[in-house]
Structures are given as structure tokens and as C-alpha cells.
Amino acid sequence: MVKQKWETRPLEVWNKAKELRAKWQKSIVTASSEKVLLAQGNVNWAVGFPALRVIEDNPVGAMMANRNDAFSRKCRLAGEIEGWGREICGYQLNCWGAMYLGHLEDGSPFPMRDMVIPFPDPCDQHTKRGQAPMDYSPIPRWQANFPLYTGPRDPEREKAMIEDKVQCTLQMIEDIERIYGQKFDDEKFIEAMKLSRKIHAYAREVSLFMRNIPSPLSVKDLYSFYTIGGLTKLDPEETLDLWKSLRDEVEWRVKNCIAAVGTERYRWMETHPPPWHFLRYYRYMEKYGAVCIGSQYSHMMAGAFEFTEDGTWAPRDMFGSFEDKPIRTREDAIRAMIGEDARGHNFKVDEVIRPYAVCEFARAYKVDGAILPLWRCGVGCTVTRKEQGLRLSQIGVRVLHYEGSQPGDRTDLDENRLLDMLDTWMESQGLRKLED
Amino acid sequence: MEKCREILKNRHQYAREWKKRTGGKIIGYYEPYMPEEVVYAAGVLPVRLLAEHEPDDVTDRQMYGNCACSRDILNQFIRGRYDYIDGIINAEGCQWMLNAFQTTLNNQPTLFNHYVFVPDYVDGKTSKDVMYSELKVFKTALEKWVGKTITDEALDDAIEVYNTNRRLMRQVYELRRADHPVILGSEAMDMVLASQIMDKREMNQILKEEIPKLADRKPVVDKGVRLMLIGSETSDTELEKLVESLGANIVIDELCTGSCYFWNEIIPQFDRLMAIALRYLGRPHCALKDNNWRRRPAHIHQLYEDYQAHGVIIAKQIYCHPHGTDNWMIWKFLRERNIPFHYFERDTTLPHEETRLRMEAFINMIKPDLVYK
Questions:
Q1: Total domain count for chain A?
Q2: Which pLDDT value is given to residue B372?
Q3: Which of A274, A289, A331, B267 shows its CA 20 to 30 Å from the CA of A388?
Q4: Contact call for A384 and B95, based on CB within 8 A
């Protein structure tokens, strides 16, 4: 038995996060009885409507995979029978498979969506997102573009792209007001936009604290929070409180050397979501004193960072001068939400236009190794993964790839083999389990 | 006809000879949304990068889970088959092709390259403005690269050459529509594929000579089963030939390398770039860009009816996500109309015997229906 180097303790704010997540989960099924419209999608402006709730199928599908393998398998099969490819995103197959079956895992009726407001993203699966509920039962669906181009930033080129985003958003809001007779509350939206900046700032600090040795959080801890305020939409005030509490607690943990892994001696990173049905491998790696500090994906609430010329790790702020601009109208708020960089800043954009960013992340978080999944299904979860592995190897980060179907699809992941691979990989780096 | 087949078979040789003959540059492109007219107006030959479907052992280092088409394009670059290509363009289509574009650049960073953003929401109110803006940026980048201005006259000429090609290809397809077609599906498909790798002016000349000869032909298939082919892109005619060997004929397709490539023309207007932008946004929707305004099922149905097909083959490239996601809607709509269809997945190569068995069973399934009719 190796002596623990640092104290560990559970996060106090963890229960609050669980509570909020459960509240969100429940809000999906109760929407109909509350006379609230349920939209497939992920947009921040939905808060302006008095009776509209947006639910993205990603966290729904991920949760299904985590909680009930037998049911999610049944759902995927239902999707395949309808004609979906087996290599399609497991999140979508789980979620819409349940729609085809007509019920959720507990047998309650599937909460049908009332409209679709897609979540634009470079991933092709996102582009097609929400077509299943639209094609299944005729409901309105809107669409927006995710502008992209390679090479350096070109603000001139982006003018039409930003205008397109603004006009699409305005159009969607006006359409929903007209079709459903709900009045959009501009004040509430503007307030939520301002709060979202504060939430973002707290998330950034949490992300930065994880650079500390020992890391105050592991990615497994972070996964309890990282979608709250993003994919998991809750009351903005409540969300802000949660992130503030988390920031305060993590800061305290850093000051007092409270570690996520008391025996931390090895830091590793990932690049994309883990197999949600098999999170045990994080704990397994802890036996080697290895802590996973996450990925550009799991740190997405914090936005994108980069090394500045003076060598500091700083946020790449796409909102820039908007901080000083007054937000008075709906359009001001939409422009503030979109920011000044049409391409946005997230891990997926980085894969396309800043492939070197993965190496910067590795350097900033002082990682020794990287475990990069190769997902066979869902294009956005796989694209550029091999190249990222090559890039990380070139800067001295040890890389392990493993294969599977998709984070929400257990079909092709050989769990025992993955654990064997972890043993071989760690031992090849001269590390043995500290305890068994 | 043979000329097209020969050129397609020896397409690398054709491109090298074209380069030698004209001294011009060649651009390789990945997706059918690439505004070829702008490239052609710059005096550059646009060549569609087509997959060879050969087993590949070199791209594993850079790619995982990609469709065979995108992998094979990278494979060919690494093997040096595209050594005549001076630049590559990706006009936003599917993510695998974007991946192939980027990875090719990682391997060959000196190539001229440009990414044209094409809105996924092709029917959006402001999408035409975005596309127009992108075309302006693209034109400027090309002008800088070739060192000359792309004039309105050059654009007019390119538009005319391309529109002529589209009209001629529609004539070829019209011959497929007849009760007793004088052209086989594989022959027509060879012509469309050849048109994507050839200088359109030369292709037009060939078509002008060949179409009257085709019209004088005797029917090549007499009362066979008429099939429609839809699905992911393809770059050979193996499947069409296989179907023909079983006494059937593919009379129409809805492939991005087939009819969708040439179906709509540019409607000339004073602002040439806007005319081009509208043409590319208005082309038959590909699976990826068939979003909230669903046009693809109706287009498929119209072609099916117009060409009096008896059944549909849905050939999806394995790992093709846009089609993998769109399929269930297509299945649903075909079922609702009692249209027989057969779904199968293509991989790198076509497993001949297995595919033959499946196609034979499908064709035999349709035949009794024809007797009753």
C-alpha cells in the first residue's frame, strides 16, 4: 500500500449538482403536464419564452447509456429497424429509438417534442439533428448554419456569416411568437445573457484550477457539472449559484492541497466523451496514481484557451469588445451571444481550424499521457482523432487509442480488453498499480 | 461512349496531358458544391477527386472510421497519383471530406487550398448572402493565386460552357427515360463521371457528337426491370453493370456524382457571382443539406415517376453519416408509396457474389409485379 500524498474528500457542491441534474431530467417528462412546450435543441435564448423548454438529445442519450444498457440497446435496435445506420451517433439512436418505441426506460410515455431548434455544430450529425422527431410527427423545425472556414481569422469574411446567424435567430424567435402565441420576454433574455457571462467566468476559473498539482478535480468530478448551464438548461440564477459554489470550493481545495486523487503522480487527458456506460476506467486508472484532468471537450463550459505571446495560458475571448457595449435590445443580446468570431470557439472548431490546440491543452494541464477513443459511430466524435494522437506523440505525450462504437453506444466496446490495455500501457511507462 | 469510358479509366493520364497541352493549373475538389465556374473562368481545370475503391493500407495512421471515399482520396494523394494537382478546394459538404481535405494539406502543405463555406441551411433567407460573400472571397483568392483578374466575360463564358454541359447531360438522361432506353445506366453514369474530371468544353464536343448517334441506337434493354439508384456518392459503375448483367437497367439516379451534379442550370443575371451562388444553393438537396425544408423525398419521387422505375436501390457508403441519418425518412416515404426498395451498404470494394445474389433476388421480386401490370 502506497502512502497517500494529499488529502482527498468529496465535493460538497456535488449533491447540489445532482439535484439540479435530476430536476432537469424530470422537467423533460413533466413539460406536457406543466403546459410547457418541449423543443429539441440547445439555444440560450429559449429562456425568453414563458413556456418553452429546450432539450438536446445528447445528454438524454448519454444518460440512457449510463443508466440502462438493456433499454438503450433496445432503442438503438428500434432505430436500426426504422432505417438508421448502425454507425450513427448513439445519443440520437438511444433518444429517438425510445421515441419509436413510444416509452422511456420506466415505461412512461416518451415525451414528444413540440418543435425542433437545432444546435448548429461542425458535426454532420448535429446538422441533421432533430430531423427524426420532425419526420416522425409533423412539428416545426428551424435550422441555422455553423459557419466555418480554414486558415487565419478574417473579420471581413465573417460579416455575412454573423449577419446570417443574427437574422436566423431573430426569425426563429419571431416565428415561435407567431406560431405558439407566446410573448418573448426581451428583458429576461438580456438578463440571462449577462448572467451567462458570469457563469462562464466561474467555469473558466474552475478549469484553470485544474492545472494545479495535485488537481483539485478529476474529469469524473467535472462531468457532474460541465453541461449545467450549457446542454443542461436550468434557471440562470440557480446555475450561477452552482458555478460560484463550485469555483469557491475548488479554490479552497487548491489552497489546502485537497486532491481528486490522493496519490497523484501521473496526469492524463482525453479528447472526447468517454463511454458513458463504462466510467469505471477512471477509477481503475487511479490505482496507478493517475488522474484524468479532462479534455478540451470536458472543459467546454470554460471556452477556449491559448498560450499568449508571453507564455501565459489565457482565454481566447470571442466576445471581445462586446463587454463594453450596452445590451439594450433583443438584437443587441443576440449579437452579444454570437460574439464577433463567426466560427465560434469550441473544441470541435479547434479540431478543424486549430489542430495544434490539443497540444497546447496538453502542455497547459501538464499531462503525461493521453487516452484517445476511436469511435466508430458519429462522425464528430471521431474526426481528426488519429491526427491528434500523432500530434501529441510528437510533443512527448504517450498516447493510447481504444476502439468503441460511440460514447452512448456500448455495442463494440470490449471493456475487459480496455482495462488490459490500460495495464499494458501504464506498465510500458514503468508504472505499476499502487494498490489492488 | 467508349471515349468517355476510356478517359474515366485513365483520368490521371488525361489530366496530365491536359496540363501539358494547355500549360494550365489543375484544382482538385471534394464536394459537388464547389463553384466550378469560378475556377474555370480563372483558366484552371477543376477535377473532382474520385475514389478508386482499392484496398488501402496507408491512411490508417491519419484516419479512423472515415468513409471509403474520403480515405481513398487521401490514399491516392499519398501514393502520388494526384501529382498533377496544384491546389485543392473543399466547398463545405460532409465532414469526412473536410477531414480528407485537411489531412491532405497536412501531407502536402504547399498545395494551394481554399475552403468555401456552403450553408447547410440552403433555403435560409440570408444563406444566399453568405454564399455570395464566400464566392467573392474565393474569387479573390483564386485571382491572387493565378495572378490575373477573373473578368465578367470569363465568368459568362464559363457559365455558358457549364450550362451547355448540363443541357447535354439532361439530353442523355432523357434517352434513359424512354420506354425502351437506348442507353444503359452504366453508360450514362460513365458519361456523368467523365464530365466531372474533364475539361467541359471538350466534354461538350464529345457529347454533341455522341448524342445523335445514341438516339439512332436500337433499344439496349427490352422491357427489363427499370431501377432507380439513390444513396451516397460513388465513383464507378460496378453496381450498374452488375444490375445490367441480371437483365435489369438503372434508368435514373439521385446521386451527387450522378444526376444531382448537373440537374439545375445557372440562371444568368447581371451579378454573375450571385447567379452562381443561387445555382449551387438551389441544386437538388444532398442528404446533409436536406434540412427543415425537405425537398429530397419529393425530388426522388418525381424522378421515380418520370423515369417509370419499378423499384429503388439505396446504396449507402458505410460510415456515410448524412445518408445514414436520412435513410429512415427515405424508407418511410418509399414504404408509404408502396415503392419496392432494396437497401445495402457499400464498402471499399463491392463484394460481387453477395451483391449479385441480393440484386438478383430484388429484381426477381419485382418481375411478377410487371407481369400483373
A1: 1
A2: 63
A3: A289
A4: no
Domains of chain B by residue range: 10-146
Whether B102 and A352 lie within 8 Å, measured CB to CB: yes
Name the closest residue on chain B to residue A386, using Cα atoms.
B62
Taking the whole predicted model, whether its pTM rises above 0.90 is answered as yes
Cα-only R_g, chain A: 22
In a domain, A8, yes or no: no
Nearest to B126 among A150, A164, A380 (CB): A164
The answer to whether the Cβ–Cβ distance between B102 and A124 falls below 8 Å is no
Dig out the grid coordinates for A382 from the structure. 471521431
Residue A322 has pLDDT above 60, yes or no: no
In a domain, A207, yes or no: yes
How long, in residues, is chain A?
Answer: 436
Q: What is the pLDDT of residues B66-89, one digit of tens each?
A: 999 999 999 999 999 999 999 999
Fold of B10-146: Rossmann fold (3.40.50)
Residue A422 CB neighbours (<10 A): 19
For A298-319, the pLDDT digits (tens) are 998 888 888 988 989 988 866 6
The secondary structure of residue A406, as a DSSP letter, is B
Of A246, A209, A251, A211, the closest CA to residue A225 belongs to: A246
The reported pLDDT for the residue numbered A324 is: 67
Which residue of chain A has the CA closest to B297?
A135
Partners of B325 on chain A (C-beta within 8 Å) are 84-85, 88, 92, 124-125, 128, 131
Coil, helix or strand for B51?
coil
B91 touching A, CB under 8 A? no
- Within a domain: A154: no
Q: Which of A118, A150, A390 sits opposite B115 (nearest CB)?
A: A150
What is the span of the domain harbouring residue A252? 14-149+160-428
B102 at interface of A, judged by CB pairs closer than 8 A: yes
ipTM: 0.92
The grid coordinates listed for A40 are 429539441
CA distance B28 to B48: 6
Taking only the tens place, the pLDDT of each residue in B13-60 is 999 999 999 999 999 999 999 999 999 999 999 999 999 877 888 998
